[in-house]
Amino acid sequence: MALCLEARQLGCERDDRWLFEGLDIDVKGGDIWRVDGPNGSGKTTLLKILAGQLADYSGTLRWQGNPLHRARAHFAANLLYLGHAPGVSAGLTPLENLAWYQALHGERGSEAQREAALSTMGLEGLEDVPAGRLSAGQQRRVALARLSLTPRALWILDEPFTAIDHAGVAALETQIAAHAQAGGAVVMTTHHTLNIAHPLCHIALG
Amino acid sequence: MTMASLVEWAAMGGHGRFVWSAWGVTAVFMVGLALHARLERRQLLRQLKRQARRQTPSPPRGPSHDPDA
Amino acid sequence: MPLSETTRRVAVISEPADKQHLGIALGATLMRDLNRMRRRPGDVLNPLVFYALAVSLFPMGISPEASLLAVMAPGLLWVTALLAALLSLDGLFRSDFDDGSLEQMMLCPHPLTSLAVAKVAAHWLLTGLPMALMAPVLGILLALPMNSIGVLMASLVLGSASLSLIGGIGAALTVGLPRGSVLLSLLVLPLYIPVLIFGSGAVQAAIMGDAVLPHLALLGALLAAALIFSPWAIAASLRISING
Amino acid sequence: MWGLIHKLGSPKWFYQLSARLQPWCWGAAILLLVTGSVWGLFFAPADYQQGNSFRIIYVHVPAAFLAQSVFVTMAVAGLVYMVWKIKVADMAAAAMAPLGAAMTFVALFSGAVWGVPTWGTWWMWDARLTSMLILLFLYIGVIALRGAFGRRDSGARAASVLAMVGVINIPIIKYSVDWWYTLHQPASFTLTARPSMPLEMWLPLLIMVLGFYCFFIALTLMRTRSEILRREAKARWVQALIEEAR
């Protein structure tokens, strides 16, 4: 069935200040949504609300027609979220990190799958180096390896290009475009000028 | 209630120290809490008035002095 | 970088996660923490070294006299075990909170309460159990009568599980705070008192030859209550700290 | 039902309702406290065993009752805030916490002082005093946690969770401390094991307890109203209120 996440009159108040209000967003298969706005305009907060992580917002949020908080498990099974912090624990190697991430979604997966995902992100040879010793960009790449490792319909990426070099950015842009063409949906924020061969929808905050 | 019987009553048969210290601390706390709450409210009102005055320049007041300020 | 599967349609997964998936997630979270501790043994050994050190301070502070120490041994062993568990609680969620893994745990299809129990179980395996195994040696240091060593270990094994569960609530509440560890002990120590009372009570009963079972039964009851209430409280606290 | 909860929960409506209720509560509190004190200090007979130090009961027992019921009320208010998102409930919880802590301290101090003539020492690890001491630590924990968060409603939610966890633990702590105390001092004299107080001793105690509760309600109403003004300062009705007060 087609993917659809719809937000009606979405609003969020932080310390008596309205970050945004009255937002109507319809995320459907094949969309790439880009959230723009200066720093502190609530971009990350909006993404966290769309990912179902923050509960205190006004307005309604529906996933496949029913309210998000009731369809949480189903929604989470289709969501891939990448926040500011990559979610790669320093004490584990990239392979162990990815193995845990797959297990978190209930898939045992295989070593070969994980190595393939790491090599698509250019991390050959670093599979067994504890993530703590990798650079910020490499840690971000370990997190981005999840995009090809665990196929999820909806991607919510919070500034995925931070600390990524030019080659990596280009590869990621093509991956995002391919995901949208294959029927998936992407909601992302970035200060980077995107050149993706796919129509973009914009949300301006602040 | 002659003076003597008043003093004798206050001595509480030798336990006066304990009874009055216990009652005294209780009274201090209860009265203190009540006064603090009133003070807190008055300060809050004064602060809100100052903020209100700062945001909306109030019309030039006549010679009558504002009792609350 | 070749894009292998471009044409495959992206399917929306509809069937909910079943029990078998939950088992994989919990097992993986447990193994993850054990592996991480294997790499950084300091985090595991510090509470144990603190436990041994603190116990050996008391004879210097009180007196080397064996009969005097034997009277206080159960209480001292239990209080220092409790403080050592408290020491290691701060790191329970902090590293996951800092590197973003906690966010991933919250956004996975499985309930956060069961993942929290897996985290606390890993913490118990790495602090509660080793302390229970180490306690007899420290009991000898404090001239603890030999007949109560078994009960000491049993009470520590049972008690430290409740300590980890109740402590997990405090750790989850203070994980987002910069200087949270001092506040953590302030929140959690009053809740530790029933476990301390029945734990050291069991060892004292063993020394005096009284019935030990009621004490251990009450410790088990506390553990059961902790298992029922604290996962819910830990999950709610983690959601609060994430937004904090 | 739902409409009533939200109407009850709106700060403006609560502010006006409490304005009418408050003078009555203060009046009742002062009346009850004065009559109870005069009766307890002057007319109630002294205890045959403890003599006049028994009169401390008219302060110790009401404070102890209030200390525990304030914690339970705070936990219930926290639950109402967490489940139905009624902000006034959290404002009331924040307002009553210091009062509960103060009452716990008063109960602790008066209990210790009461024990001096009977036990001869200033502190005695009596079962009830120990539970009261732990309750004081729980209060300090809740108040400290509420203030530790950057954002006010995170602190509010954290304090609500801790209050609920605490309220579940209070009976457990009370039971384990009583069990611990009877294990170590089975035969000694405990303060509250009163056979049955004669009426003229018991009636002033009832009046004092009612007086303490009215005092609690009146003070909580007043402090909640201040909290409403502080948190809703930007609301139009507060601006209007300030405007006409100027």
TrEMBL record, chain A:
Organism the protein comes from: Vreelandella gomseomensis
SUPFAM superfamilies membership: P-loop containing nucleoside triphosphate hydrolases
Keyword annotations from UniProtKB, A to Z: ATP-binding, Cytochrome c-type biogenesis, Membrane, Nucleotide-binding, Translocase, Transport
Protein name: Cytochrome c biogenesis heme-transporting ATPase CcmA
Domain ABC transporter: 5-205
Entries under InterPro entries matching the protein: AAA+_ATPase, ABC_transporter-like_ATP-bd, ABC_transporter-like_CS, ABC_transptr_haem_export_CcmA, P-loop_NTPase
UniProtKB/TrEMBL annotation, chain B:
Keyword Cell membrane: yes
Main location: membrane
Keywords: Cell inner membrane, Cell membrane, Cytochrome c-type biogenesis, Membrane, Transmembrane, Transmembrane helix, Transport
TM spans (from-to): 20-39
A family per Pfam: CcmD
Topology in the lipid bilayer: Single-pass membrane protein
Region (Disordered): 46-69
Signal peptide: none
Compartments where located: Cell inner membrane
Function comment: Required for the export of heme to the periplasm for the biogenesis of c-type cytochromes.
Record-stated family: Belongs to the CcmD/CycX/HelD family.
Protein name in UniProt: Heme exporter protein D
Gene symbol of the encoding locus: ccmD
UniProtKB/TrEMBL annotation, chain D:
Protein name: Heme exporter protein C
InterPro entries recorded: Cyt_c_assembly, Cyt_c_biogenesis_CcmC, Cyt_c_biogenesis_CcsA/CcmC
Segments forming domain Cytochrome c assembly protein: 13-184
Protein source organism: Vreelandella gomseomensis
Pfam families: Cytochrom_C_asm
Transmembrane segment boundaries: 21-44, 56-84, 96-117, 129-149, 161-181, 201-221
Keywords: Cell inner membrane, Cell membrane, Cytochrome c-type biogenesis, Membrane, Transmembrane, Transmembrane helix, Transport
Membrane topology: Multi-pass membrane protein
Coarse class of the protein's main subcellular location: membrane
Purpose: Required for the export of heme to the periplasm for the biogenesis of c-type cytochromes.
Subcellular location: Cell inner membrane; Membrane
PANTHER family the UniProt entry points to: CYTOCHROME B_B6 PROTEIN-RELATED, HEME EXPORTER PROTEIN C
Similarity comment text for this entry: Belongs to the CcmC/CycZ/HelC family.
Superkingdom, natural source: Bacteria
NCBIfam families referenced in this protein's UniProt entry, alphabetically: ccmC
Residue ranges that the Swiss-Prot or TrEMBL entry lists as coiled coil: none
